[in-house]
Specification:
alpha/beta; Rossmann fold; six-stranded mixed beta sheet; 35% helix
Length: 250
C-alpha cells in the first residue's frame, strides 16, 4: 500500500546510498518466539533502539528521498521513529508486503526454547538459519494464517505463503527489489528501508554474492543501520554497519 507517490529525483554524482535496517526489538523478540508474519509491537527497549538509530543517522548527515518498510508494525514503527528523528517525516513511504519477514509456517508464535526441547537444537537451528530448510506449513484454516489477516486483504491469496525457507524468501524479496527499488536507485534516489532479519539476510546474500554457508551463519543486529552504496546502474559497490564506532566495510 503506497501512501504517497514518488517524484523523479535528479541524478547525483557519486555512489547512491541506501540504508537498510532490521526493525528494533519487538515483543516477540523479547519473548524468544518465532514471529514470521505475526504482528507484535516494539518493546520499550525497541523504541529506544530506534530513536538511537535515528539520532545516529541524523548525526551522520543522512538525507533520504523515499522510504520503505514491510507491512508489519515492528518495521513500520521503526521507520516512523527514524524519520521523526531525522526530521524527514514528509518523504514518500511505501509499505510493501514483499518485504515482510520470512514466513515460519507452523512455528509462528511458538517459544524457541520449547521448540528446541521438542525437536532438538540442531533441527531448530536448521529451521532458523538453513537456506533450504523449512518447518511445517501453516494450514489455511488456522487463524494464524495470513489469509485471515486484514493487513493482507488486498493480496492475491495464491501469493500468501504457508511457510518459507530462506531461498523462497530471497526470491520474493529480489523480485520486488528488481522491479520497484532498482529503478529508483538508477534515478539516484537515496532510500531508507526498514525490514526484518531474514528479509535482509536474503537481500544481502544476493547483493554481496554470499554462499549458502556464509548466509547460514550471517546474523543482523536489530536497529543497526547498514549503509549500502550502489552505482547508477544499480550495481552494489560496498556496505558497512553504521554503529557509531569504527565502521568496518564488509
Amino acid at each position: 500500500m503506497k501512501t504517497t507517490t514518488t517524484k523523479p529525483t535528479q541524478t547525483r554524482p557519486g555512489p547512491v546510498p541506501v540504508v537498510l535496517i532490521r526493525h528494533a526489538q519487538s515483543q516477540w523478540n523479547k519473548e524468544n518466539r518465532f514471529t514470521g508474519w505475526a504482528d507484535p509491537p516494539l518493546t520499550e527497549a525497541g523504541i529506544a533502539e530506534a530513536h538511537a538509530a535515528g539520532k545516529l543517522l541524523r548525526e551522520q548527515g543522512f538525507v533520504f528521498d523515499a522510504a520503505y518498510s514491510s507491512r508489519l508494525q515492528r518495521a513500520v514503527t521503526t521507520l516512523g521513529i527514524l524519520l521523526a528523528e531525522l526530521g524527514q517525516d514528509g518523504i514518500p513511504r511505501t509499505r510493501a508486503w514483499q518485504l515482510n519477514e520470512r514466513h515460519y509456517g507452523a512455528l509462528q508464535g511458538l517459544d524457541k526454547g520449547e521448540a528446541t526441547a521438542r525437536h532438538g537444537e540442531q533441527q531448530v537451528w536448521r529451521w532458523r538459519r538453513g537456506y533450504h530448510d523449512r518447518a511445517g506449513a501453516l494450514r489455511r484454516e488456522d487463524a494464524r494464517h495470513s489469509c485471515h489477516d486484514p493487513l493482507c486483504h488486498d493480496i492475491d491469496p495464491a501469493q500468501l505463503p504457508d511457510v518459507e525457507n530462506l531461498a523462497e524468501t530471497r526470491e520474493r524479496v529480489m523480485r520486488y527489489w528488481d522491479e520497484d527499488i532498482i529503478p529508483r536507485i538508477r534515478r539516484g534516489e537515496r532510500l531508507l528501508i526498514s525490514a526484518h532479519g531474514n528479509t535482509l539476510r536474503a537481500l544481502i546474500m544476493a547483493l554481496a554474492d554470499m554462499s549458502v554457508a556464509e548466509v547460514e551463519c550471517f546474523e543482523i543486529p536489530t536497529a543497526m543501520p547498514i549503509v549500502y552504496h550502489f552505482d547508477h546502474n544499480g550495481s552494489p559497490l560496498d556496505w558497512y554497519y553504521l554503529n557509531g564506532q569504527d565502521d568496518q566495510a564488509a
